[in-house]
Amino acid sequence: MGGGGGRGDRPPLSGDPWLPGGAAAGGAPDGRGGGFLLPLRGGRCPFLNRENLCEIHRILGAEATSLTCRTHPRFIEEYGPFREVSLCASCPAACDLLLGSTAPLSFLERETAEPEEPGDPWLCGLLPLRERMLRELADRPRPLQERLEAFLLLAAEAQILLDEDRTEDLAALAADWKKRETAVPPGPGLFPHALRVLSKLEALDGDWRELLRRAEEAPPAAVPETLLERLGTYFAFRYLLKAVNDGDLLGQAQFCVLMVLTAQRLTAVCGFWEAVRRLCCEVEHSEENLEALRLAFLRDAALSPGAFLCQMRS
Predict the structure, then answer these.
(1) Please, which of 140, 158, 223, 311 could form a disulfide with 189 given CB 3.0 to 4.6 Å?
(2) Is 153 inside a domain boundary?
(3) Which residues pair with 36 in a beta bridge?
(4) CA atoms within 13 A on the CB side of 253
């Protein structure tokens, strides 16, 4: 990792990392003319020194490190006139920050001297809508299940406007929306089906599917609503504006709610902190898994908005 010369937790590798072509680190051409691929040894970067600090960062500075090292554990989204940078909860330190407080999760803003680029016209409506959806999540006098339901229902109404190409009405919806009584047909809710859908995705760690299987059988564990709220806010901030790319705001909202409910479900088998970290690692770091879930929300009746509402009212 870059930053301040990120620390590792394994003994260092001997050898001079500055030999031509990364030879000391066992580097090999990547086959695409773009540089070298450097294998990890026992999960350890070969450029960490005996103090577990990055030699590239120490000698050449952060700008000389790889893109992964400069950005990890951050996600960076470019929206034209602004950029959003968020930490990924798959990183243990970032997970500590996310779950180490019960205060409402907030985000810092700052101006830069970078030239402003034009943004998508949809942003004018999606930005106030996201703010309203975040306020729904943060309305602590109400039970969390009720807040998640409002979050999803508001997204469903906004999706109608997006489908009808009425994005100019999104800001008014965000300002004036009131939750209406919604009848929900009887059904089983999301679980255990949602866990089985997750188990069919690409697994990054060998025991992930076993954790999901055990969660099917384990009784739900109690998790403070303040922490579940912070997790929902984390996902909402990260994902709702991605609707600017494909118009699928409802799918992004379903994803946010599913991640909260799944982390709560996994808590019984591995604890809440580990459930959040593992869930983020398995899903957020795989575009294929994210896309598979987006398609499942569209095609799988057992993951429909109605199934979400059944789950939250059960």
Answers:
(1) 311
(2) yes
(3) 29
(4) 29
